[in-house]
Write a structure and sequence with these properties.
The complex is a heterodimer of chains A (342) and B (188). Chain A is 35% helix and 20% strand. By secondary structure, chain A is α/β, with parallel strands linked by helices. Chain A has two domains: 173 residues, Rossmann fold, CATH 3.40.50; 155 residues, Dihydrodipicolinate Reductase, domain 2. In chain A, strand 4, helix 4 and strand 5 form a beta-alpha-beta unit. The termini of chain A are close together. Chain B has 188 residues and is α+β, with helices and mostly antiparallel strands. Chain B has two domains: 95 residues, ACT domain (Alpha-Beta Plaits, 2-Layer Sandwich), CATH 3.30.70.260; 78 residues, ACT domain (Alpha-Beta Plaits, 2-Layer Sandwich). In chain B, 30% of the residues lie in helices and 33% in strands. Chain B is built from five helices and eight strands; from the N terminus they run H-E-H-E-E-H-E-E-H-E-E-H-E. A four-stranded antiparallel beta sheet of chain B has the order 2-3-1-4. Chain B has a four-stranded antiparallel beta sheet with strand order 6-7-5-8, with helices on one face. In chain B, strand 6 and strand 7 form a beta hairpin. In chain B, helix 2 runs antiparallel to helix 3. Classes of the chains: A alpha/beta (342), B alpha+beta (188). At the A-B interface, helix 12, strand 9 and strand 10 of A face strand 5, strand 7 and strand 8 of B. Strand 10 of chain A pairs parallel with strand 8 of chain B. Chain A: It holds the Pfam family Homoserine_dh.
């Protein structure tokens, strides 16, 4: 596999981990942007050919020489609270890149700026690898139409289940042979419920503890109200049904109303409660569900698990870290590795 | 019980080689000495074969009685007479016949259960006829005024699980209760 030249939009935990790990996977980072600035190959003096485009393209997809930006210095700037680079954020689209890694924060509704970034890259016949859930949860059909008209491809393994191979598993099984996908796809909600159950603590107590530990964000609403998990199951339903779903089609209940006593009652009959989602070709639901205490779906802590119900292969489970910078970056880079050379 | 065996197990229950059929009778007994014996009398006197008696003294119905499930076999012609004799003893019969619930599932209800009349909620769930409430446990840590939780264990036929849950959802929505459903469909 030839290495790809990556332009990375977003320098949060996932974007920066992709930048840091890209070299290990044989790829080069030719640009990285955050919301206020960008560092691109031709601005570092490392690649005189990058701005003209033709020189690099001459070698038919294989990268020529050291055109990578200085990732460490870009991230050091970010750590000091400065923009990653001195050029405007859009300049990452002007360098000669093969793959746009879209890792800006997930937004609902119009899914901007992620959707705009993806469509700009596709219009230029570049590949797009998403870590941002918005474009595939909220505007899946539009995005696929743009991809259909482009020489570039769209992949989005990292949007569902972090490091866990979920979409590639469905791809291997073929979507038609998967009847349902269920599971636990929000680590924060799972941490809260599993700790409430094992320690007999109240919701508010455990949530505060999770915030102290950095497991829950300062504003954990999207995690505890089920939105984050719902976006992932909407993406799964889109993959199974070849589109047609957005967040508003999902039936979503959060865990805010689950008292400790509910977990205690569930335990009387060997059950526990987890925030479980389900995606089928018919629809999407996410809510607290009773599952056997020692069953596969009762994962503990921030662990995620995905259950595939298949036509020919029975029930399969994939489990692991559903979030985290380096973890999610491995899913991004696995997608990059699956792309054809341009 | 594995799902694959359900079909054949049902057949085996309902016909036997000596023209007996298998039946399940579900009763509720007062927690008083001799009640079970009195209930079994009409069954054995009619020449039925007792196959199993499921009787858990520590489980109570919402009415405070002890649920008892009796599996028996007898010639079909004798079954109705047997049930009549049993009824004559005053024992409440919850179910008598060849139909048998396949499995139990739990649901947890959260909300103002006491204020919204839990026993009426249970009665309405039973009234849908899709499931029988076999066990209820209630936790009201904030007293009867505050939000509380109840775990209902339902006996239900495999094919009626979704309908039973939908029926519970309907009652719960009306009473503003949250239902924590079991994950069905998945072999979790």
């Amino acid at each position: 596999m030839a290495g790809h030249r990556l332009a990375i939009a977003g320098a949060g935990s996932v974007g920066r981990s992709v930048a840091e790990l890209a070299g290990e996977y044989g790829h080069e980072v030719v640009g990285i942007a955050d919301s206020t600035g960008a560092m691109v190959a031709d601005s570092t003096g490392g690649a005189s050919a990058a701005s003209s485009g033709e020189a690099a393209a001459d070698s038919s997809g294989t990268t020529t020489g050291d055109i990578s930006i200085d990732v460490a210095s870009a991230l050091a700037r970010k750590d000091r609270g400065e923009p990653v680079g001195d050029t405007a954020p859009e300049t990452i689209f002007e360098v000669d890149y093969d793959v746009l890694v879209e890792a800006t924060p997930t937004t609902l509704g119009d899914a901007e700026p992620g959707f705009g970034h993806a469509s700009r890259a596709l219009a230029a016949d570049r590949h797009v690898v998403l870590a941002n859930k918005g474009p595939v949860a909220e505007r899946y059909d539009e995005l696929q139409r743009l991809a259909g008209a482009s020489a570039g491809c769209v992949r989005f393994e990292a949007t569902v289940g972090g490091a866990i191979p979920v979409l590639s598993t469905i791809e291997d099984l073929t979507p038609d042979a998967v009847t349902a996908v269920r599971g636990v796809l929000n680590g924060t909600a799972n941490f809260v419920l599993s700790r409430m159950a094992t320690e007999g603590l109240d919701y508010e107590h455990v949530l505060a503890e999770a915030q102290d530990m950095g497991v829950a964000e300062a504003d954990p609403s999207f995690d505890v109200d089920g939105t984050d998990a719902a976006l992932k199951f909407v993406i799964l339903a889109n993959v199974l049904a070849d589109g047609g779903f957005s967040l508003e089609d999902a039936d979503v209940t959060g865990i805010e109303g689950v008292p400790r006593s509910a977990l205690e009652l569930a335990a009387e009959d060997g059950q526990t409660i987890r925030l479980v989602g389900e995606a089928t070709r018919e629809g999407v639901s996410v809510g607290p569900r009773l599952v056997p205490e020692h069953g596969p779906l009762a994962v503990s802590g921030t662990r995620n698990i995905v259950q595939f119900e298949t036509e020919h292969a029975g029930t399969l489970h994939n489990s692991g870290a559903g979030a985290g910078g380096p973890e999610t970056a491995t899913a991004v880079l696995a997608d990059v590795g699956r792309l054809p050379s341009r | 019980m594995s799902e694959d065996n359900d079909g054949s197990a049902t057949t085996a229950r309902s016909t036997t080689d000596d023209e007996h059929a298998a039946y399940t009778i579900r009763l509720e007994l007062e927690d008083e000495p001799g009640r079970l014996q009195r209930a079994l009398g009409p069954i054995t006197e009619h020449g039925a074969n007792l196959r199993s008696i499921h009787h858990e003294r520590d489980k109570r119905t919402p009415r405070g009685t002890i649920p008892v499930e009796i599996d028996l076999s007898c010639p079909p012609a004798q079954f109705d007479g047997l049930v009549e004799r049993l009824e004559a003893t005053g024992v409440p019969i919850i179910q008598a016949g060849e139909r048998r619930y396949d499995r139990t599932v739990n649901v947890v209800l959260i909300g103002h259960l006491v204020d919204s009349d839990l026993s009426e909620t249970l009665a309405r769930i039973e009234a849908f006829g899709r499931a029988s409430v076999v066990d209820v446990s209630l936790a009201a840590p904030e007293g009867t005024e505050g939000a509380s939780c109840a775990r209902l264990q339902l006996a239900v036929e495999d094919e009626s699980v979704a309908d039973a849950l939908a029926a519970i959802g309907e009652v719960a929505a009306e009473k503003d209760l949250t239902v924590v459903e079991p994950l069905i469909g998945g072999r979790s």
